[in-house]
Amino acid sequence: MRLPTKYTKITQWEPGTFPLFFVLFVSFVGIISSCSKTEEKPASNMSTAREAKKELKELRESIKKVEPFFKGMATPLANDWLASHKEPGQTFEQYLDSEPTKPTKERQKIYVLPLGTFNGQQTKIVEAAADYLGAFYDLEVVEMKGRELRVASSNIRQNTATKARQIKTGYILNDILKPMLPADAAALIAFTTDDLYPDESMSYVFGQASLENRVGVWSLARLDDNADYDKFLRRTLKIAAHETGHMFSMMHCTKYECLMSGTNHLGETDRRPIDACPECMAKIAWISDVMPAERYRKLAAFCRTNGLTNEALEFEKKAAAVATAQD
Fold first, then answer.
1. pTM for the complete prediction?
2. Is 6 helix (H, G, I), strand (E, B) or coil?
3. Strands laid side by side in the 195-197 sheet
4. What is the mean pLDDT of residues 277-303?
5. Which H/E stretch holds residue 326?
6. Using only C-alpha atoms, what is the Rg of the chain?
């Protein structure tokens, strides 16, 4: 604080004769200033806090509104994921407390990278999956130019059952994707037609993602087994959105039959919906800053465009249900 000139000119007083009234005045001003600063609360911060509180309240209400559309998780069958993986699940509240990785002001794009060789149908499936991710997470999706997949022999093995070539996921995640992650990427996702394995303990995986590094890869190699185009598409949408969820710190869901539930085989994948359950929907709406009704309408539009009529109707019903929570 700079005092007026009339109080800063002290040359007319002798040393040691500094007026008491001036000291008291300055002290009094300092006390008032200190008190006023303590009591001030910027209006912008208060407004932001109120908006955040309102948003969470609406999301919690939306969870209740869409619960009737989902089945609770059934007792796992012998070869199902939860039969061999004891997982606690993750509620919306637990997710908020976990300080999750999420899109930021600087990182608002999902990048999709085709790795290897694709036929016409596979290319169409990848393009549709990219569009779905844009609607599912309400983020801009950038389709990158495909690149050849070159892998050293140390990261390749032959599957003992199928005899097919498999590539180790860790190599793709750490040696290919992580170094090329764009600065503005919320996530970088690679598709490949090669079969994948994470380590010697597992026969294969549909895909794998890093919760810390915002990169993921998944394979189309098994998704077209005994499937027409629509089933192939549904499987790919589920795997793509599931692995992307992991990149935003979403754990496996155990409360509902949910897109974020773990799967061990295609039969289990086929039982899952192409949508996130109420708890996981709230996580997505929160990290993407999108209203649930708007998100559901975008997903319904995608499904109608891609011939998924039943799913489109379901999304439209969900949009109508949560709209009442946001009025």
1. 0.82
2. helix
3. 156-158, 165-168, 195-197
4. 97
5. none
6. 28
